[in-house]
Amino acid sequence: MSEWRFVPTATAHEAGGRIGALPAAIRPVGAAGATVCGPAYTVLCGQRDNLALHHALALAPPGAVVVCQTGGWFEAGYVGEVMVRAALARGLAGLVIDGCVRDAEAIAASGWPVFARGLSVRGTTKDPSLAQAQGCRLRFRAAGGSVDVDPGDLVLGDADGVVVVPRPRAAEVLAASHARETAEREILTRLGDGETTLDIYGLPRLGE
Ligand SMILES: O=C([O-])CC(=O)C(=O)O
Ligand SMILES: [Mg+2]
């Protein structure tokens, strides 16, 4: 997994053929500059209910990124200081949630990477009768289509957002990401030498 650590989300997204971008509303909410990288552990919560997340924090293997959907009910504080402390104690790599979290200052101070739609003070229930699941496929509705997340898929998060790379494509996308990073460094050098992006990309000129 360490070979992915310095691959930006945008690079992996492009290198894979514009894949895996989760909704742009899911952004880092903790410490500035937080990144996450690891295999997905997926969980589906009931609406306004975080019982399944409590189970996930106990069940996910160390190093996993917990990826959570909330039945489409975004505005509740599904995770906060207590649960972040629990996740840290278990060695989990981070959280990506299609909903909100709370205890923002404590999350930032913890340094644990949390990617969420935002913040909400609203409390959650812990109701075992609600529909919920561990280790299931999650489908995120994103601009231009949907993104499926299966357990074990590679999750990358940084200041730009979150990208998920299907596990069967991980080696290929990693190689393409490294090639793209090398190419972009060359482009930056050429810009420093006075070329324009029109020159470098061979873009059509005005009037052409
Ligand atoms: O307890 C909860 O439901 C969420 C929370 O605020 C915490 O984890 O601290
Ligand atoms: Mg709390």
From TrEMBL:
GO terms (molecular function) for this protein are:
4-hydroxy-4-methyl-2-oxoglutarate aldolase activity; metal ion binding; methyltransferase activity; oxaloacetate decarboxylase activity
EC number(s) reported in the record? 4.1.1.112, 4.1.3.17
Q: Where does substrate bind?
A: G80, E81, V82, M83, R102
Instruction: Specify the domain of life of the species encoding this protein.
Output: Bacteria
For the keyword Protease, the answer is: no
List the catalytic activities from the record.
Answer: 4-hydroxy-4-methyl-2-oxoglutarate = 2 pyruvate; oxaloacetate + H(+) = pyruvate + CO2
The UniProt similarity line reads: Belongs to the class II aldolase/RraA-like family.
Instruction: Output this protein's name.
Output: Putative 4-hydroxy-4-methyl-2-oxoglutarate aldolase
Species lineage: Bacteria, Bacillati, Actinomycetota, Actinomycetes, Streptosporangiales
